[in-house]
Every structure is written in structure tokens, then in C-alpha cells.
Amino acid sequence: MWPPSTDTQVLLDQAKQGDKAAVDQLLARHREPIRRLIDLRLDPAIVQRVDASDVVQDVLLEASRRLQDYLKSPAMPFHLWLRHIAKDHIIDAHRRHHHAQKRGVNREQPLARPGWMDQSSLELAGQLIDPERTPASAAIQEELQRRLHGALAQMDENDRDILLMRHFEQLPNQEVATLLGLTEAAASMRYLRALRRLRELLVPPDVADAASVGK
After folding, report:
1. What is the domain-level CATH number for residue 203?
2. What is the pLDDT of residues 126-171, one digit of tens each?
3. pTM, whole model, 2 decimals?
4. Which of 3, 7, 166, 191 is least enclosed, having the fewest CB within 10 Å?
5. CATH number, domain with residue 16
């Protein structure tokens, strides 16, 4: 999801030397990953009121303003720093539209998050439901997406968050641990528990037992 760290570091070094073109290129390379993050996290209930492109632009503008401060003391990888800024803007969007206009927002029809509708989600659902079945047909893909979206929506916020980070944002366990303030072992255990919980929601115990008997 995020650009290669080596390429990013080259641009950061150039930006630190005052190269404005490097700054523009750096932010442009991260536009789509930021957009995907926002698509993943933006509440479907407000997507008709909030333009994700506007949120992306606000994130990049703030990153541009704060970049020199980051370069003076980069406490974390650049993409994680950008992610923090994006998360703050998403929280602000939710706060504005769920509190200031709560009744109007809640009447609107929720939509599926665009960021949940990609090949990684199909692969995750397929592995958990039936590893031996390839989700080739459109009908199977649609069913997998529907079941996965429903299961993720039922999950505890912490469980859903770590699955989004690992599978959709494609962050390694080390970076997830940093973001959550956990040891790598603790982050790994939380991820495995969330994965087990997701499988339980996708494959109810009675279905799983029947499948094992059939084999």
C-alpha cells in the first residue's frame, strides 16, 4: 500500500535540503495510499456528506506545512507520521458529522467502504471460509465481499482496527506494534485473536463442524 521506504527516504533527504520538487513528489507518491486509508476508515454513514478527496487534500496540506518539523526530528517512519495526520482528520470528520448533524447523518443509507472492496479482502475471506476454493466467479466474489463486510462490521473496534492495519493497509507487525504502543509479541497475539474472531463470524461453529465431518 505504501511506497517503498528506500525511495521515500531519498525524497526526504532531498526535501531536507530544501528541494521543493522533492516535497511535491513525496506527497504525490503518498496521495493514493492516503486515499485508500481514508476509504477504509471513513464511516459509510457520512460518505454522502464528506468527499474523501477533500479529506485527502487536507491531510496533504497539513503534512506539507508540518514537514520541516518532522524532518528535524523524525520519531517514526514517514508513512506512519502521515497516517497519524490522516487519522486525526478522519476523527474530525466523524465528530463534525455525527455530533453537529447527527440526526441527518443517521437517516442516510450506509454504504460499503470502497477500501474494503479489493483483491486483498477477497483473499482474506477466501482463506478463512474455504482455503481450497478459488473465488473465481463474480457471484462468489460478491458473496465473499458481503460476508466479510458484515463480519467486520460486527467486530470490536480494536479487533477490526488491527485486521485493517495488517490486511488492508499492509503494515508489518512491527509497525502495528508501534502504532498500538505494544510489544511485537503482544501485537501478534492481538492480531491472531482478531483473525480467529473474524473466522468465527464468517464460519459459524455449526457450519465449520459440518464441513469437517464432510471431509
Report:
1. 1.20.140.160
2. 667 665 555 556 666 777 778 888 888 899 989 999 999 998 888 9
3. 0.76
4. 7
5. 1.10.1740.10
